[in-house]
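Dear support,

Our group has been running a series of protein-ligand predictions, and this particular one with zinc ion is the one our PI (initials K.S.) wants archived with full inputs and outputs. We had some confusion internally about which version of the output was final, so please treat the block below as the authoritative record. The input we submitted was:
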Amino acid sequence: MTSDLRLHPRARRRLEAIVAHRAWAPAYLLAGPVGSGVEGAAAYLAKAILCTGNSPPCGVCACCRQVAAGCHLDLARFAPAEARRTDGQEGPIEVIRRLIAHLALRPSVGQRRVVVLPGVDLLQPAAANALLKTLEEPPGAAVLILTVRNPSAVLATIASRCQVVHLPLLDEATLTARGANDHLAAADAHLLARVATAQTGLASTLEPARLRGAWEECGAVWSLLAAGDPGALLAWVDTAVKGRDDDLDLWLAAFGLWLRDGLLLAAGRPAEALCFPELARRLPASRLPPSAFFEHGADLLLTAHRRLAANGQAKLVVGDLLLTLQRDLARGEGGGYHGPLTRVAVGRGG
Ligand SMILES: [Zn+2]
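Confirmed final output from the archive:
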């Protein structure tokens, strides 16, 4: 069972029962406010549905690994609530149309497609009704996982077509008490709760102590990136990356959190918003790269995950990732960052 769901015994039992039966409903609605771990629960369920192992989600089969890396061909995320019809982008209705076309496709790998739809409670009525039509005539080979923060803001007709699982917000006292029950330190319980909301997809397999260790190693890698010596960086890759194994997955997860936290800091968010608030001390404003650096880093990390899932050689993939980041970082020095995401700066200005 996932680390973050340890904090939700009731939701955990419900999800475990659903997974044990393996008789998937056409749609699930996972309801929980920010900080409740609802994204982690969605990732757990998606992985369990697509898993080909004996006790889903086994975490070791090819499907589980691809889901963890965010590159399973039958897993998709559609976020109509995040779509804005500005700058020629598609709006919520267009996203739902694309979702309907996607659901008409046969699964690529296994027996079904899984689609995660975050923020369904934020949809305007027209988009919510378009989504409702999809739920009224669910395609046989697909499972939809809807997540919402506020279940009372969801159309009753949508909720009634889903199996609903509630994840209550964990207050500090509950976190501490549950952490004590599970022999988790309070700080670890808080860390898990924060990681669960980070939507990394990898969060579901993390153990706090190992995650902290991997995060510290990211700090060492960051120093190497900033030092600007490609040789030293590749020497680290050579000794630290043994191959495609659990340690590498954990390090990549921690590095993803590092980039995410960096992006939040660069966007002016307070330290409390970070998975690892310590990062604010490690990267003071004077040494903080602009948000475009972290955004590009997240893209590069996703590419690395895809290459690894396609059997890319681990040392080569991690080496490419870090060397590109080192070049990005060097270009940012001396003011005026000219990274590949110049569209960010253009968008802001116009
Ligand atoms: Zn599996």
